[in-house]
Amino acid sequence: MTKHLSPEETIDALEATLAADRAAHAADCGACGAQSEELRAVMRDVVDSGAVPEPSPLFWDVLQHRVRAATAAESLPAPLWRRSWKPAVALSAIAATAFFAVLLRTPALPPTTAPPVEPAVTIADAVSVEEDYAWDLVVNLAANLSHDDAHELAPTGSASAVLVENMTPREREALVKLIQREMGGLE
């Protein structure tokens, strides 16, 4: 059993352009023949009705106006990128403001200060004055200075105070011992 004619094949049968095997089926099949005859009757009615009159010249203007009004009333949603750019910019501005607020409110870390490092060599570990040739040089140079010249070269009171204040307790203790030893063991 073969398939019935499709709507396209029915039109081809009316126009006599259908393939031979399918035309044989249309002639033998009662359903396909009835469908072809029904379509032939519709086509005869269209031809018998005559020419369709042209519409009024105003019809096209009215139709155009109605189509424009209908399309204007039916608003299409804007594309996503057009709808979402304003909220995206606002969210970006809020995020940037929050970032800078956190950045500016975060206290700066205080500079890390390393604990004071004890000197590897202290005055007590140093070479004694009798064995130090540099000290001999200082003594020889100072021997030619008058008391007034030596007094002018010595640091002022505030300068020596600053030097002593910058010393660690261990360095101060070594300085006291050195001064005592140089002054002849006075305590």
Cα end-to-end separation: 137 Å
Q: Strand content of the residues, in percent?
A: under 5%
Name the poorly predicted regions. none
User: Helix fraction?
Assistant: 55-70%
Rg (C-alpha, Å)? 58 Å
Query: Outline, from the CA principal axes?
Result: rod-shaped
**Helical/strand content category:** mainly alpha
| Main beta-sheet annotation | none
Number of strands: 0
Number of helices: 9
Q: For the residues shown, what is the average pLDDT?
A: 79
**Element string (H = helix, E = strand):** HHHHHHHHH
Fold topology:
Layout: H1 7-14, H2 20-28, H3 30-49, H4 57-73, H5 80-105, H6 133-143, H7 147-153, H8 157-165, H9 169-182
Helix pairs in contact: 1-3, 2-3
Protein architecture, described:
- This protein is 65% helix and 0% strand.
- The protein is an all-alpha fold.
What is the gist of this entry?
This protein has helices at residues 7-14, 20-28, 30-49, 57-73, 80-105, 133-143, 147-153, 157-165, 169-182. With 187 residues, the chain is mainly α.
List keywords for this structure.
187 residues, 65% helix, rod-shaped
